[in-house]
Amino acid sequence: MEDIIIEKTTKTPSVRFSFEENYLEISGVSIPEDAENFYDPLMKWVESYITHKKGQTTKFVLKLIYFNTSTADYLVNMLKNLKQLQDGYTEESNDSEASQQAKDSLDKAALASEKSFLDLQSVSDEEQENEQSSKIQDEEENQEEVEEYSNLNHPLKVEWNYEEEDEDMRETGTHFESIIDLPFTFKAVEEID
Questions:
Q1: Fold of 4-91+154-189
Q2: Which of 22, 48, 122, 188 has the smallest number of Cβ neighbours within 10 A?
Q3: Tell me, what's the pLDDT at 56?
Q4: What local confidence, expressed as pLDDT, does residue 4 receive?
Q5: How far is CA 52 from the centre of its chain?
């Protein structure tokens, strides 16, 4: 399968879909006059990609400054299709270092929680209150690590980039995240080229 590389214009985004690298990126402004003509070849490529790459981790990076409604429809459909990568994917097939680090981190957090509980039994009331608030904070951090780990268990990794000042685009990303029902990674950047 051939990669797709498209340079950006004033109305269309740059596109880099790499079959070998399992990497897809759309960046820039997307207000094409004929969205079907621009996005249909990308949709067909994604459909073919899915049949060849089921069970493999894929990174999809979106760096959009602005896009219109027709683009939004194509992006949602593309993301929903890419979610099919989960078929045939198991935790064992994801041997990434990041996944192992997340597991190790969870194990350490669980041991630390257990130790702090045992230590609570042998300290004064005031110290217990301090330890309790510390324990609550540890549990919140542990929960964040669990959520981060669960993100690693899906082969589709979506990174939503937005310019630091553009809270509307950040909010749009969270809306997409809820529609797709898959955790996104959000990244504020100074400027999108």
A1: Transcription Regulator spoIIAA (3.30.750)
A2: 122
A3: 87
A4: 98
A5: 21
Q: Look at residue 64 in the predicted model and tell me its pLDDT.
A: 97
pLDDT of residue 27: 98
Domain residues of the chain, as ranges? 4-91+154-189, 95-150
Between strands 4-6 and 23-30, the pairing is unpaired
The pLDDT score that the predictor gives to residue 175 is 97
Distance, CA of 34 to CA of 146 (rounded, Å): 43
**What is the tens place of the pLDDT at every residue in 107-155?**
544 444 444 444 444 455 556 555 555 555 555 454 444 444 444 567 8
Q: What is the spatial distance between Cα 192 and Cα 13, in angstroms, rounded to a whole number?
A: 11
Task: For residue 170, count other CB atoms closer than 10 A to its CB.
Answer: 18
Between helix 125-152 and helix 97-120 the angle, nearest 10°, is: 160
